[in-house]
TrEMBL record:
It comes from Bacteroides helcogenes (strain ATCC 35417 / DSM 20613 / JCM 6297 / CCUG 15421 / P 36-108). GO terms for molecular function: hexosyltransferase activity. Residues 30-135 form the Glycosyltransferase 2-like domain. Gene3D superfamilies: Spore Coat Polysaccharide Biosynthesis Protein SpsA, Chain A. This is Glycosyl transferase family 2. PANTHER family: GLYCOSYLTRANSFERASE, UDP-GLCNAC:BETAGAL BETA-1,3-N-ACETYLGLUCOSAMINYLTRANSFERASE-LIKE PROTEIN 1. SUPFAM superfamilies: Nucleotide-diphospho-sugar transferases. Pfam families: Glycos_transf_2. Keywords: Transferase.
C-alpha cells in the first residue's frame, strides 16, 4: 500500500513538471550522460550560470559507483533538473546507446548533448534559442565554437573561427579528416526530429568515430551545420579520463576506424572518387596510426584499413600501405 502511494505521488510530480514545461514553453533539453563526479560540479555550475533559463537538464547516471545523484540533487533549487539512474551500465560496451537512452528521458524538441566534465559558455543557451526562433519549424543542426581544455581548465587548443554561417555535412567531414578542426559532442545542438529520423547515434566500438559519423549524418539530413558565433564551449580532455589518451583500447580504435571509413564510403557515394576526400582520408589514417594508436598496429590491421581505402582509390591505398608497412607491430598482437 505504501509503495502504491509513493508511486502515485511520483506520477503526479512528473505530471506537474510536464505541465510547467508546457506552460513555460521550454524547448531545450540539456542531456548529460554521467559516470564520473570529478568535474560534474564544474559542469553543472556552468549550466546554472546561463543567462537564459528556458531549458531542462537531464542527467543519466550510467550505474556509476560514484555519488552522481547526491551532486545532482544539490542543484535542485538552482536548476530545473531531472535525475535518472540506470540500473545497468551501458556506456562501457555501447556508449552511443547510453547517449540515446539519456536523450529518450527528455521530450523537448531541441537537444544539447553535454558530458559530465565540459563547460558551457554563460550565453550558450541564449544563442541556441535565438537560432531556434530564426529557423523555427525546420530540422536544425548547429555548432558552437570549441575550445579544448585540460584538467585545470587551461586551454590546450581552440578551433579556428567559423569561416561561413553554414557548411555542408561533407565539408564538416573534410575539416575533421584533415585535422582542420577538433570535434566534441558538447559543441553540437540538434532537433529531436533529426536525431529520431537518423535512428540515433552511429555505433562503432568504444564510440570511436561514432560522433563524427553521426554529425555528418545529422548535417546531411538537416541541410547543413549552422555556425553560432561567440564564446566557445569547453571540452575537457584530461589525462586518464578519455580513451583518446589510452593505449588500452588501440585494437578497438583500429576496428572502429575501419568501420568509419566503410561508413564514409556508403554515405558519401557521390564523393568517393574525389581527390579532396582521398587526400583527407590519407591524412586521417596517418593521424590515427601515428598519434591515436602510436604505431601500435599489426600488418593485419593495416591491411584491413587499406582494403577499404581501395574502394576510394587503389593508388591511395597503396600509398598508405607503403608509408606505414614498416612501422607495423608484428609481435605484440596476433
Amino acid at each position: 500500500m505504501v509503495m502504491q502511494v509513493i508511486a502515485l505521488i511520483l506520477i503526479r510530480v512528473e505530471l506537474c513538471c510536464f505541465l510547467v514545461k508546457v506552460i513555460m514553453g521550454e524547448k531545450l533539453a540539456i542531456i548529460i550522460p554521467a559516470y564520473k563526479t570529478r568535474f560534474l560540479r564544474k559542469t553543472l555550475d556552468s549550466v546554472a550560470k546561463q543567462s537564459c533559463r528556458e531549458f531542462t537538464v537531464y542527467v543519466g547516471d550510467d550505474a556509476s559507483l560514484e555519488d552522481i545523484g547526491g551532486i545532482v540533487r544539490s542543484y535542485s533549487k538552482e536548476l530545473n533538473i531531472v535525475y535518472h539512474r540506470f540500473e545497468c551500465n551501458l556506456g562501457r560496451k555501447d556508449l552511443p546507446g547510453h547517449w540515446d537512452r539519456c536523450i529518450s528521458l527528455s521530450t523537448e524538441p531541441l537537444i544539447w548533448l553535454f558530458s559530465d566534465d565540459d563547460i558551457m559558455p554563460s550565453d550558450g543557451v541564449e544563442r541556441v534559442l535565438e537560432a531556434l526562433r530564426k529557423y523555427n519549424g525546420k530540422p536544425i543542426f548547429m555548432r558552437l565554437p570549441l575550445m579544448v581544455v585540460d584538467a585545470d581548465g587551461k586551454m590546450v587548443y581552440k578551433n579556428p573561427p567559423f569561416e561561413t554561417k553554414q557548411i555542408s555535412g561533407y565539408e564538416l567531414l573534410l575539416d575533421k579528416l584533415t585535422g582542420k578542426i577538433s570535434s566534441a559532442a558538447c559543441e553540437y545542438v540538434f532537433s529531436r526530429d533529426v536525431w529520431r529520423q537518423m535512428g540515433g547515434f552511429v555505433k562503432f566500438p568504444m564510440a570511436w568515430c561514432s560522433d563524427d559519423a553521426t554529425w555528418v549524418g545529422f548535417a546531411n539530413y538537416a541541410g547543413g551545420v549552422i555556425s553560432l558565433l561567440g564564446n566557445p564551449v569547453c571540452w575537457r580532455n584530461a589525462a586518464g579520463t578519455n580513451i583518446c589518451n589510452s593505449a588500452c583500447f588501440d585494437k578497438e580504435k583500429l576496428r572502429a576506424t575501419a568501420l568509419f571509413i566503410r561508413w564514409i564510403r556508403e554515405h558519401c557515394t557521390s564523393h568517393v572518387k574525389e581527390r579532396r576526400l582521398q587526400e583527407a582520408l590519407s591524412a586521417y589514417i596517418h593521424t590515427v596510426l601515428s598519434r591515436s594508436v602510436r604505431y601500435n598496429f599489426t600488418l593485419l590491421d593495416l591491411g584491413r584499413i587499406c582494403s577499404i581505402l581501395g574502394d576510394f582509390s587503389y593508388a591511395m591505398a597503396l600509398q598508405v600501405a607503403f608509408r606505414h608497412i614498416f612501422k607495423t607491430n608484428l609481435f605484440r598482437r596476433k
